[in-house]
Design goal:
The complex is a heterodimer.
Chain A lengths: L18 H23 L27 E6 L8 H10 L9 E9 L2 E9 L9 H4 L5 E3 L5 E3 L9 H5 L6 E2 L6 E2 L5 H5 L5 H5 L5 E5 L6 H8 L15 E4 L12
Parallel strand pairs in A: 1-9
Antiparallel strand pairs in A: 1-8, 2-3, 4-5, 6-7
Chain B lengths: L1 E2 L4 H24 L10 H14 L1 H7 L8 H4 L6 H34 L2 H11 L13 H17 L2 H7 L12 H25 L8 H7 L3 H21 L3 H11 L4 H25 L5 H28 L8 E2 L4 H24 L4 E3 L9 E3 L1
Parallel strand pairs in B: 1-2
Antiparallel strand pairs in B: 3-4
Helix pairs in contact in B: 1-2, 1-3, 1-7, 1-9, 1-14, 2-5, 2-9, 2-15, 5-6, 5-7, 5-8, 8-9, 9-11, 9-14, 11-13, 12-13, 12-14, 13-14
The chains are: A alpha+beta, B mainly alpha.
Chain lengths: 255, 377
């Protein structure tokens, strides 16, 4: 019996699917998926954007800011002592098992001609931070002086920013259950002091300063020394600059 | 060993969302597109969409570090974050689906309310929202049914945001794939459809060997195998393309193709969970005598495969580039598994309640039929 039912449609005559219907639908599906995929894949969104790190001279908004904090890591002076890690832990009460600042150790070259490489790692306080736009609740933000910070009272601990950071600089704080990372010791910087890691570095390998001040140590170093940033292919424009960084460690390597 | 930042709760979030969206599509194939072969499943499909939809926030809560701040997703909406879209989309979807069900089930619920007693009568009265007619043939509003149905279907398409959540992260080359929204939508649709089919087979408990005509139509329907074929095709195109991309991307793809997640993603997810059901369901579609057992086995495999694909994809995206000195534990922790099983138990309970309250077995025959006629499905 043909009945009018819940969807208010006219009765549909009984008729099963034939092989022809099946093949026709399959063909349409295959062509559709191929066309859709080719359209979607045509403008590739990944790979090298051709954007190398922008350095001090090309920094776009430096004139508009009162301060623009940056960190220079002179790897020629780093001994791998990890005093920066300890000082950071102490200053910021970082819980066990997680780090805001750590020293990466790599061996480069081929055995037996290998050489150790130490690389202090921080939040890069990127000019184009990928963690900021992905935060669903606006808890991560970039301050006017370029520092990328987290509003701990607003963060929901979803971990999206942790996934988005290409440097592995963020973690979920196991005590406060929010995202956490290096703030460049914002509480000290705002009080006119150096970050704890900089203040404690025994080799003087860490230099912090204002890019907008041409007389700052950072500005002078950047003017004189060739510097590199990590993962320039990501287009994040980091504000942590390395002097003497082994070129084998700049691209696409784990943090 | 470090647990994955995004582990089982995130996979469960995507899984539940997909099941709900897929179930709604299954329902809408009959209610909206009038696909006759899906008519026997429509009511169970709507119930599945509603229950899984209500369950989506549970794994989200368990995943968040600060679940109490969940309202921030709505109060501090950030349009550039696909995860930020989750709040408005999910709330709108759940409201629209429930409203749509109110109009879809209205005649059945009114009739059931008239004959029900006790708690069930009160529950049915609450579901009706408005005062039901005391006698006569209850009529639903076709316009409201159509509008809420279209809105629900559009919102299902917006579930592609789940794929965008991963797709917009350039630092994870495996995830940074523009095809993700479509792939997530497809896995959701096939898993939801498979779940409804399994529920229908389990609850109807068909007797005898010969399927009834309506049942045979669904068993021979090419819709599910067509979706599976499209999903397989997109996977093939996607990963072949990625395999020829930059070295970073190639290393990420290797994790899925031959690395730690290959067994789960490639063999269980795509092989056992997609290709085998595609073959079985295609045999049913082309056969004059389709088997329920083929559909049942396919549905189970699709559900397993859907989970495997999602877990493999999400885990592989994180493990291929672990920070120095960190080794990720790729499998869920015991706590995560216990939590997941507990959530599934809660969903099972919700299904029991939904099936007990709702008149899903009743068919109110409307139109030119005698007033109030009610027959069993």
């Amino acid at each position: 019996m043909a009945t009018r039912s819940g969807n208010g449609r006219k009765p549909v005559e009984d008729e099963g699917w034939t092989r022809r219907d099946f093949l026709r639908l399959g063909g349409v599906a295959a062509v559709g998926s191929a066309a859709g995929a080719s359209v979607l894949l045509a403008p590739s969104t990944r790979g090298d954007t051709g954007t190398l790190a922008k350095y001090y001279d090309s920094f776009p908004r430096r004139q508009a800011m009162e301060h623009r904090w940056a960190l220079v890591v002179d790897l020629r002076r780093c001994t791998g002592c990890r005093a920066c890690t300890v000082a950071c832990k102490s200053e910021n009460n970082v819980p066990l098992g997680v780090y805001r600042t750590w020293v990466r150790y790599d061996e480069v070259g081929k055995y037996p001609d290998t050489r150790p490489r130490y690389m202090p790692m921080f939040c890069n306080h990127c000019d184009n931070p990928p963690c900021v736009p992905v935060c669903p609740v606006l808890a991560t933000y970039k301050r006017a002086d370029g520092l990328v910070l987290i509003d701990y009272d607003q963060c929901i601990g979803c971990g999206y920013c942790i996934q988005a950071c290409p440097y592995g600089a963020r973690h979920l704080n196991p005590v406060q259950r929010t995202a956490d990372k290096c703030t460049l010791c914002v509480q000290r910087v705002d009080a006119g002091q150096k970050p704890a890691c900089v203040a404690t570095c025994i080799g003087g390998a860490l230099i912090v300063g204002d890019l907008n001040d041409p007389e700052s140590d950072v500005s002078r170093l950047l003017a004189k020394q060739p510097v590199q940033t990590l993962k320039p292919e990501q287009g994040t424009d980091p504000m942590v600059f390395y002097i003497g960084l082994d070129s084998r460690l700049t691209r696409g390597v784990p943090p | 060993m470090t647990a994955l930042e995004w582990g089982l709760p995130v996979v469960a979030k995507y899984l539940f969302g997909g099941l709900s969206a897929g179930a709604f599509v299954t329902y809408y194939l009959w209610q909206g597109f009038g696909l006759k072969s899906f008519r026997p499943l429509a009511k169970l499909a709507w119930i599945s969409a509603a229950v899984w939809g209500l369950a989506i926030p549970i794994p989200i809560f368990s995943h968040l570090g600060q679940p109490g701040r969940f309202p921030e997703l709505l109060l501090n909406f950030h349009w550039t974050s696909p995860m930020g879209w989750a709040g408005p989309i999910l709330v709108a979807y759940i409201v629209v689906v429930l409203l749509n069900g109110r109009f879809f089930f209205y005649p059945d619920v009114v009739l059931a309310w008239r004959s029900a007693t006790g708690v069930r009568k009160a529950a049915l009265r609450a579901l009706l929202l408005t005062r039901p007619p005391a006698k006569g043939v209850p009529q639903t509003s076709p316009l409201a049914l159509k509008v809420t149905g279209v809105l629900g279907f559009v919102l299902v398409l917006f579930f592609g945001y789940t794929g965008l959540e991963l797709g917009i992260i350039p630092s994870r080359p495996l995830w940074a794939n523009p095809m993700n929204p479509l792939m997530f939508l497809l896995t959701g649709i096939v898993s939801g459809m498979a779940f409804v089919a399994l529920l229908w087979l389990a609850l109807e408990r068909p007797k005898g060997t010969e399927p009834r005509p309506a049942e045979r139509d669904f068993l021979r329907s090419p819709v599910l195998p067509a979706f599976l074929a499209v999903f397989l095709g997109l996977n093939a195109i996607s990963y072949l393309t990625l395999a020829y991309a930059s070295p970073d991307v190639q290393r990420a793809v290797v994790v899925l193709a031959s690395g730690e997640m290959a067994t789960l993603f490639l063999w269980v997810g795509l092989g056992l969970g997609t290709l085998v059901p595609l073959v079985l369901l295609s045999i049913n579609a082309l056969s004059r005598a389709p088997f329920r057992s083929r559909l049942a086995v396919s549905a189970v495999l699709i559900l397993i495969g859907s989970f495997a694909v999602k877990y493999g994809f999400i885990a592989a995206g994180q493990i291929y580039e672990a920070p120095a000195g960190v080794t990720y534990e790729i499998w869920p922790t015991t706590a995560e598994i216990i939590e997941f099983v507990a959530v599934l138990a809660l969903v099972f309970f919700l299904f029991q309640v939904a099936l007990w309250v709702s008149p899903w077995r009743r068919v109110a025959v409307m139109g030119k039929t005698p007033a109030g006629k009610e027959v069993a499905a």
